[in-house]
Amino acid sequence: MALICSCQDFHSMKLTTFVPFTKTHLVYSRVSMSSSFSSSSARSIASKEALPGNLEKSLGHAQKPQRSLSTVTHSMPPEKIELFKSLEDWVKTNVLIHLKPVEKCWQPQDFLPDPASDGFLEQVIELKERAKELPDDYFVVLVGDMITEEALPTYQSMLNTADGIKDESCSSPSPWAIWIRGWTAEENRHGDLLNKYLYLSGRVDMKQIEKTVQYLIGSGMDIRTENNPYLGVVYTSFQERATFISHGNTGRLAKHCGDNNLAQICGTIASDEKRHETAYTKIMKKLFEVDPDAAVIAFANMMQKKITMPAHFMYDGHDDDLFIHFSIVAQRLGVYTVIDYANILGFLVDKWNVEKLSQLSTEGRKAQDYVCRLGQKIRRLEERVPLRSEERPAIPFSWIFNKSVKL
Ligand SMILES: [Fe+2]
Ligand SMILES: [Fe+2]
């Protein structure tokens, strides 16, 4: 969806994308799907004792009855761990180069008023004035993006549960572990910068946002990567591109509204995401080279389960469907849409030369066929007639002081 709006157009924007209102149609669906591409190798069933409802809720655990939980763990055959060990030198030479030395990295303070400077208060006033030009629905999306970034502990945990690449000691010299720590350290600046910007903007209810972050980190995520690095790298490749797109789009919208400073903030974060996308897609490309059958089966497995967004357990203490509501607003503003989802899939199919893979097993060919056709199917869904503006309900968001925003 093209970002064609001016600031005044935000509330009357023509809706050209399919905005799903039934939960099962959402790209971000939390509904469980079984996968016919799951590896039949070593699995265990993760047992999970349910906490009493109130206790779960107060701790930030699953408060939503429809929540599905992964049951498959350690699905990569143990002998493949050796393959990941054998790639360590390759990672050192080819992947670690995509981390930037700290001294060459931007830091959040580069984009924010300096509290030690004499002009600090004036700079904050200017920032707040610019923020007044941005509409409420824009802030809903920016807050959702920031909260997603702030749940970084969950993402580092996910990578450190992946067999063959995890950081065994939290300071392991393995190139895989160096990558995970370096990537996390770079990502940490994203939530930090957006959080500080939003705090200074005066447009949002920081306490509600902080509660949402705490709930989210307490809830974790259920992305069904099964401690399997093939699945994990497909997931991160997809996600880095998704965040590159969404931060880029929030930047473009800020620019439309004349806030070049915020546009620069979003654009700078987007360029980090692009660099991370390059690294993860490169790892996956290598796996396609050395183990094409497992790679394409993993790709199909993740796509069949759908790429669940990492913040899908988002909760603010009020709205049980907060993530769905945030996602619908993001889609309506064109920040992240069903078409983006299909485009990312197509981008990865091309990047990994999936159509040209040969000498695959029967299961591999089936997986190849599935991912190559899936983009078309998703696009057909997008062609459904969207709801008219007057048919869309308005939902209060606690992040913006319970002001209502149209879905
Ligand atoms: Fe990020
Ligand atoms: Fe990222």
Automatic annotation (TrEMBL):
Just give the chief location class.
plastid
Q: Where does Fe cation 2 bind?
A: 187, 240, 273, 276
- Pfam families from the UniProt entry: FA_desaturase_2
An MF annotation (GO) of this entry: metal ion binding
Q: Which domain of life is it from?
A: Eukaryota
* BP-aspect Gene Ontology terms: defense response; fatty acid biosynthetic process
Swiss-Prot/TrEMBL keywords: Chloroplast, Fatty acid biosynthesis, Fatty acid metabolism, Iron, Lipid biosynthesis, Lipid metabolism, Metal-binding, Oxidoreductase, Plastid, Transit peptide
User: Listed GO cellular component terms?
Assistant: chloroplast stroma
Positions of Fe cation 1 binding: 149, 187, 190, 273
Q: How many cofactors are bound and how?
A: Binds 2 iron ions per subunit.
Where does it reside?
Answer: Plastid, Chloroplast
- Give the protein's cofactors: Fe cation; Fe(2+)
Instruction: Note the subunit structure.
Output: Homodimer.
What family is this protein classified in?
Belongs to the fatty acid desaturase type 2 family.
Name recorded for this polypeptide = Acyl-[acyl-carrier-protein] desaturase
Organism this protein belongs to: Camellia sinensis var. sinensis
